[in-house]
């Protein structure tokens, strides 16, 4: 057996990237890799936590209408009742998630470039421990690419992968973070030593003419026969930083709003939202989900179910009831959000009381739109009883436009936009 293992270990690597002489960049080495790794070590956990909070915001434990990942099992251990205070909470967490994801793309690509010789290591597996390390690396790289690509495609409204984005992105995130944790536990000591091996300020003052390869390292990142440098480490760090800054500038405005909204060039929903009281971003248009003027015209009625016979209202009757106002934004899983809009309508708590369930624990909201994901959703008790939670009939002093949910829509503080159901025709309050 020893002879066989010895023969395998002596097998020469195939030509190309499996040979150490193939990789010749003189700036590749443990220090530069660790600089990029440190940024990811800080950014990736924030990205994961904000993504997990985004999932919790949908209140998936209320039932299958809200839950796009019904087989999550123990992965949903952390779920909690999503709060309505502060009202901008989802706008913040999802804005950070999407913006940070975009900003980290150049860092991720630079990190992958810096360790690419490790991906072509020969032999691919030399022992059980080495095999586990390689497996964690495969899951780490594959998971990172999958999560970033699916996320970016989704926020650009160009999702082409089979299956639900929510399901694939959710499970992919858990695979990625598990591999990330294993990788960090294996590499943290080496990263710390590498960062201490060079002074950051001194390295950033080193120009191209004085750039030299790092000393040989056990991981084989430093090339055996380095070529002449064409970029300094200072240039590499600056290039990656400039790329991240550029992505920040063209992304963050969709969440922050104000004057920065015009800089959000990568935000599909930033383009021509229109003007007037209803001139703000729209996710789904009425036409895209089969809502026609006939469905929400004079024949439309709102049904309210609870304890006792169902109540049925025309829109005129709803407008004649005592109305309340709340200034709330719309915030979407794609990272964009609107400014605060002034919504006017009936409090959900008042409708629950009319239905005979003033202490209602949940409400089923149903839309006239075509059946599909989030055409119906569940809201929990704390969302019903927040005084800012409305069945909105008007916005900014005008009737809702058809695309914004005429004749009535849900508006709840800190609620994901897709759960603020439009074109509502039935509310069923439950204990």
TrEMBL record:
<dbReference type="InterPro" id="IPR000572">
    <property type="entry name" value="OxRdtase_Mopterin-bd_dom"/>
</dbReference>
<dbReference type="Pfam" id="PF00174">
    <property type="entry name" value="Oxidored_molyb"/>
</dbReference>
<feature type="transmembrane region" description="Helical">
    <location>
        <begin position="96"/>
        <end position="116"/>
    </location>
</feature>
<feature type="domain" description="Oxidoreductase molybdopterin-binding">
    <location>
        <begin position="299"/>
        <end position="430"/>
    </location>
</feature>
<protein>
    <recommendedName>
        <fullName>Oxidoreductase molybdopterin-binding domain-containing protein</fullName>
    </recommendedName>
</protein>
<keyword id="KW-0472">Membrane</keyword>
<keyword id="KW-0812">Transmembrane</keyword>
<feature type="transmembrane region" description="Helical">
    <location>
        <begin position="29"/>
        <end position="58"/>
    </location>
</feature>
<dbReference type="InterPro" id="IPR036374">
    <property type="entry name" value="OxRdtase_Mopterin-bd_sf"/>
</dbReference>
<feature type="transmembrane region" description="Helical">
    <location>
        <begin position="168"/>
        <end position="188"/>
    </location>
</feature>
<keyword id="KW-1133">Transmembrane helix</keyword>
<feature type="transmembrane region" description="Helical">
    <location>
        <begin position="236"/>
        <end position="256"/>
    </location>
</feature>
<feature type="transmembrane region" description="Helical">
    <location>
        <begin position="137"/>
        <end position="162"/>
    </location>
</feature>
């Amino acid at each position: 057996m020893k002879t066989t293992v010895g023969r395998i270990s002596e097998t020469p690597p195939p030509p190309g990237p499996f040979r150490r002489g193939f990789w010749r960049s003189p700036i590749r080495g443990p220090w530069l890799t660790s600089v990029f790794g440190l940024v990811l070590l800080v950014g990736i956990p924030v990205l994961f936590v904000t993504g997990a909070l985004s999932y919790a915001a949908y209140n998936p434990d209320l039932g299958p209408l809200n839950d796009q990942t019904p087989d999550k099992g123990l992965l949903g251990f952390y779920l909690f009742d999503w709060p309505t205070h502060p009202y901008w909470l989802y706008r913040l967490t999802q804005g950070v998630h999407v913006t940070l994801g975009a900003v980290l793309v150049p860092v991720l690509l630079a990190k992958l470039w810096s360790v690419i010789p490790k991906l072509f290591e020969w032999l691919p597996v030399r022992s059980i421990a080495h095999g586990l390390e390689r497996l964690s690396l495969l899951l780490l790289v594959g998971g990172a690419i999958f999560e970033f690509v699916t996320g970016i495609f989704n926020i650009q409204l160009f999702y082409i992968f089979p299956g639900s984005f929510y399901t694939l992105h959710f499970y992919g995130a858990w695979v990625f973070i598990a591999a990330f944790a294993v990788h960090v536990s294996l590499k943290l000591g080496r990263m710390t030593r590498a960062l201490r091996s060079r002074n950051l300020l001194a390295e950033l003052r080193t120009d191209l003419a004085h750039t030299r390869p790092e000393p040989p390292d056990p991981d084989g990142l430093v090339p055996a026969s380095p070529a002449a440098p064409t970029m300094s480490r200072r240039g590499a760090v600056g290039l990656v930083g400039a790329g991240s800054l550029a992505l920040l500038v063209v992304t963050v405005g969709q969440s922050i709003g104000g004057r920065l909204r015009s800089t959000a060039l990568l935000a599909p929903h930033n383009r021509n939202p229109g003007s007037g009281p209803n001139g703000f971003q729209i996710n789904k248009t009425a036409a895209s989900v089969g809502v026609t003027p006939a469905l929400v015209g004079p024949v439309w009625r709102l049904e309210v179910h609870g304890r006792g016979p169902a109540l049925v209202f025309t829109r005129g009757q709803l407008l004649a009831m005592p109305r309340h106002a709340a200034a709330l934004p719309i915030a979407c899983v794609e990272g964009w959000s609107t400014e605060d809009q002034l919504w006017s309508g009936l409090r959900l708590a008042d409708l629950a009381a009319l239905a005979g369930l003033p202490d209602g624990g949940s409400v089923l909201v149903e839309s006239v739109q075509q059946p599909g994901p989030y055409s119906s959703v569940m809201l929990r008790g704390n969302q019903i009883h927040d005084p800012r939670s409305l069945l909105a009939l008007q916005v900014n002093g005008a009737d809702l436009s058809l695309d914004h949910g005429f004749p009535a829509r849900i508006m709840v503080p800190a609620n994901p936009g897709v759960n603020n159901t439009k074109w509502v025709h039935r509310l069923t309050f439950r204990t």
